[in-house]
Amino acid sequence: MIIKSIIILIVLLQSQQAVGQMNTCLKPSGCSSDECCFNIVPKTGEICHPIMPCYEPFSKDCCLNTRVAFTTKGKMYGYAIILDDPYSYRDKGKRFLQIWLGVPYAKPPTRGNNLRFMEPMQPDYVDKWDATYYRPSCPQPLDRLQGLTNPVADEDCLYLNIFVTNTTLDEAKSNVYPILVFIHGGEHTYGSAQFTPGHVLAQTNIMVVTVQYRLNAFGYLRLEGSEATGNYGLMDQVQALRYLQQEAEKFRGDRTRVTLMGHGSGAGDVALHSMSPLSGMYAEPLFHRAIWLSGSDLMWGGFTIYPGESQRYALELAVKTACTNQEPGEMLSCLRQRTHAELAGAASDSQVHERSWLGKPWSPTVDGKFILDTPENLRSQGRFAQTRVIGGITWDDGAQFTTDLPGVVENASLSAALFKERIMNISLAVFPHDEHAIAKAIEFEYTDWAATDNDTARLQMLRDLYSDSRNDPKTRYMGAYHGSDLQYIFGLPYLNASNWTNLGIQRPNFGYAADLDMNMTDYMMYFISNFVIHGNATPQLVRNFTWDSFRWNNRTYFQLNIQDNFENDFNLYQDYRTYHYAFWNNFFPDLVVRPARMTTIMPTPAYLAQYKTSMFALGGILATIVVLIAGLSIVLCRLMRTRQTT
Questions:
Q1: Cβ atoms of residues 442 and 426 within 8 Å
Q2: CATH number at residue 287
Q3: In-domain check, residue 141
Q4: Structural contact between residues 457 and 451, judged by C-beta atoms closer than 8 angstroms
Q5: How far apart are CA 568 and CA 564, in angstroms?
Q6: In which residue ranges of the chain is pLDDT below 70?
Q7: Under a CB-based contact definition with an 8 Å cutoff, are residues 270 and 261 in contact?
Q8: Closest C-alpha to 347, from 153, 136, 609
Q9: Predicted TM-score (pTM) of this structure
Q10: Does 487 reside within a domain?
Q11: What pLDDT, on the 0 to 100 scale, is given for residue 435?
């Protein structure tokens, strides 16, 4: 359905229209310094465009839209959008939405700078910086960025995007706003801050900051015996938070009220920050509240548990990039000489080696600096920040793992044979011992015994399985799938077709139900923004409702479900999926550690395969030499006997 209303009329600038620093600027009459510079002229030409409806008979002064943030690292030239038009989300009088895109918070960690696989460093000072367009995403296969109209990946990617309103045109009377910092997900291997523009959410009187950080091997390579200790992506996030502590007020942000929000693997990172002496446990914490969306450090791939796992992935990467048969230091130097495209491609092919490993390639690990021990140990010792936290998932968070099954897309159902087959595949891929017994236990737990012949119910149980064990209207078979909540939290249903184009994001191929989706957006933004501002999602009653906190004696959770007929499921419940979680937390661990009925033969790791081959070859050569020596000995003995006889 075509969206009938939008929040704002966004006039954004394409990345090709501006590059690098400012070259000069045009000053209005009576202006003698850069401080009152409005129209920026970059090296490629003028970038100041009239904001609609900035045309006759309106004053040309409404094109004076540049905003300058005077940071300790230089002047950051962003721009502003006037929000006193009929399309604004909340019409509270004449005000600006101020935007800075591509603000550098660290030096580019590139091969050319010799900073690859190193902790981030403070950015260099620049006199004038063009903060009017998105910078490239961090290195990853470009097919992971298909949602962008012009996907670009580069090592020079450590930038912030900042969105904040100003309730008055008088700069001297502007407020400072609590800050929401968003860490995107993507299994630590892919993703981009550009997918979650903050234009709409910032209109709830908060500053929205989205962060780019290093991914896959660039962010998590750990190589024993070298200076590569891993967790560079997490250290990037720490550096971004430090930058905001130092510079936030220059952008009208309140550094004493920072909420860190993450999604998927990003939520796992937020959980780890709460246990890190560099951020959440720092003497002066870098954030004060947290939001975990569809993830935590306990999820599959949220944290690397086994000490040797990161080393195995590093050596496998070295094999794929022809950096083997060297000392660790030399191997690291070799990896630093490869192009970012070569490394990103090789890192994306990494696979889980052992069936007992519940981690994924390129995940956080204990490094003795950012994280001092495993999360389990730190929690048991009480070594975590005492902050307010919102944590939640979508109803069908695991639905994305069912779309490859035959019949799911076409019929929104699943046969009994495919159900059993998928459960067996899970057991074979993940668990080390008696996979048949484990599969039977999982099948028993996730069979709807009241509807054993119902293919639709069976599909829902498989979705629940993926959601529980890992702790939109897109399509009818996906339901409220993983990530579908982000479009409502960031207010995307309010954007029209031209907004999507200007943002450089491909519009979803499904249509939003205007009233229904905007209603959901209003609620989601209301709860999130109130938590950021007050530390309480419902500081006032909402439809006679107050969100009670979760406690061990009540296990209260809030469920928001807006129906097609606007009959909202808007209530508190208790004990969310208690029986399923009891299965995974209590019964299942004992089943996994039970001795197998027969010895399990573990596959040979990829990085050891060449050495195994070499050993077999060497053994064959030695055996051949022994046979030759034996044969020559026999011949010599016969010759000796012949001479003696003669």
A1: yes
A2: 3.40.50.1820
A3: yes
A4: yes
A5: 9
A6: 1-66, 82-95, 167-174, 351-359, 395-483, 496-499, 501, 508-514, 562-570, 576-617, 644-646
A7: yes
A8: 153
A9: 0.72
A10: no
A11: 55
CA distance 79 to 40: 10
Residue corresponding to tokens 């009220």: 257
Asked if 291 contacts 208 with a C-beta cutoff of 8 angstroms, the reply is no
Q: Is 236 contained in some domain?
A: yes
- Is 644 a domain residue? yes
Instruction: With residue 259 as reference, give the H or E element that holds it.
Output: strand 253-263
Residue whose tokens read 């590569």: 228
Number of H helices, E strands in the chain: 17, 14
Return the DSSP state at 407.
T
**369, 392, 415 - which closes a domain:** 392
Q: Which of 524, 241, 252, 214 is nearest to 385 (CA)?
A: 241
Assign residue 544 a region: left if phi > 0, alpha if psi is -120 to 50, beta otherwise?
A: left
Q: Of 30, 32, 26, 64, which Cα lies nearest the Cα of 45?
A: 26
**Residue 68 corresponds to which amino acid?**
V
Structure tokens belonging to residue 202: 């910032």
Helix (H, G, I), strand (E, B) or coil at 558: strand
Please give the structure tokens belonging to residue 228: 């590569």
Of 466, 440, 460, nearest to 448 by C-alpha is 460
Final residue before a domain boundary, out of 392, 417, 450: 392
- What token pair was written down for 54? 């900035």
pLDDT of residue 450: 59
Expressed as residue numbers, the domain containing 632 is: 615-646
Q: What pLDDT was estimated at residue 245?
A: 97
Distance of CA 306 to the CA centre of its chain: 22
For residue 248, give both structure tokens. 């936030």
DSSP string covering 171-211:
GGG---EEEEEEE--STTT---GGGS--TTGGGGTSEEEEE
Joined together, the tokens standing for residue 489 give 């939290």
| Residue in the structure block whose two tokens are 């620093």 | 21
Number of independent structural domains in the chain: 2
